[in-house]
What we know:
This protein has 192 residues and is α+β, with helices and mostly antiparallel strands. It has five helices and nine strands, in the order βααββαββαβαβββ. Strand 4 and strand 5 (93-102) form a beta hairpin.
Amino acid sequence: MSAVRCFVGLRLPPAVLMSLEQCQRGIRTSNQQWADQKWVRPENLHVTIAFLGDVAHETVPALSETIRHAVVSSDSLEFAFETLQAAPRSRRASMIWAHVAEEGSITALEATITAGLAPFGFEPDKRPYVPHVTLVRARKPVQSPLNLDEVFDASGLRLLRVSDPEVTFFTSQLTPRGPQYSKIGSWKVKRA
């Protein structure tokens, strides 16, 4: 029985991807300690809804149908970005992400998908769900850049809203150059 690494995420529109790339450039060029960290390639930027980990190939079609049903049964999604944030702590950050400010629609979708996956043996994460887009991962924890607010404001990301993005079921193959994502299925939520 072979397995494939899977997750569910939100694809982002081109204007948002361009602003996120601008955030990455701003951090990289103004903070030497972050310049050589593990940057997420622009084509891989997304909001993770659920990380499934290794999944048996035989289970993928049933999981895909469960995720599809949860997505098309969910109400409209709308969100914006609130800030750039170093996590887990600014003094010893292991990643920088763009934090999503949302009114509960992403959280509701995450809860619906997670509940649908429970019969397949997937347990919800013990930590509260925090929607975000990871921009960079540190090879070892380092001090957070001091200019994250300035970079965020310069990117124009604060001005953009995302409405009803595609919800995609992905495979993720780890490679020396970073993960390679492939789409299993992609759906839109119903309009409210």
